[in-house]
Structure of RsbT antagonist protein RsbS:
Amino acid sequence: MREQPTGGVPILRLGDVLVTGLLNELDDKSALAFTDELTHRISAEGARGVLIDISRLEMVDSFVARMLMEMTSMARLLGARVIVAGLRPAVAITLVELGLELDGVETALNAEQGMAALGWHQQPPGGAHHDTTR
């Protein structure tokens, strides 16, 4: 199984959810390769959810906004739910000021909340212990 797409952005699988993130250095060619890899992985692995962490993005322009909308639309067509997590306040302000809307893109405050929305829950420290002697 490939964990490193040709676009240079890692895509990890956790059960039936794919987890990935975006960095500032994403150019047109890398973005296209990343989108191709992500859609291929959703289809090939039957992923029901995708978490895209953008907390490391310091700015979002119209290109990145369009890419997120397109990835979300493609994933939905393939049967996966996409949540974009970690949108910084300055990025949200910039998007609004530029009039860019992420129509159809679900968001979460951070990756943990995004994973919870996709059905994942954090285990308590030390893991859950069940008494099976009853």
User: Anything to note?
Assistant: Strands lie at 11-14, 17-21, 49-53, 81-85, 106-108. The chain has a mean pLDDT of 83. The first helix runs from residue 28 to 45. The helical segments are 28-45, 62-77, 89-98, 111-117.
